[in-house]
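Q: Got a minute? One more chain.
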Amino acid sequence: MAIVSIDGISLEISIALVDELEVGDCVLVHVGYALAKIDPVEAERTLELLQELGSAGERPS
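A: Always. Here it is, folded:
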């Protein structure tokens, strides 16, 4: 098990499906499981895109 933080929200996830993780690694998380270790640059790009999508839904039409 591990604690992950996404945009200031922390939660406990299972890391049983991913080998050789270290503190500070970025992982793809789905329904409480780490599915894969990912590149930190790709993780940052993905978070930025998700934030853009979230803010796009908040704009008045």
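A: The CA atoms of residues 3 and 9 lie 10 Å apart.
Q: Perfect, thanks.
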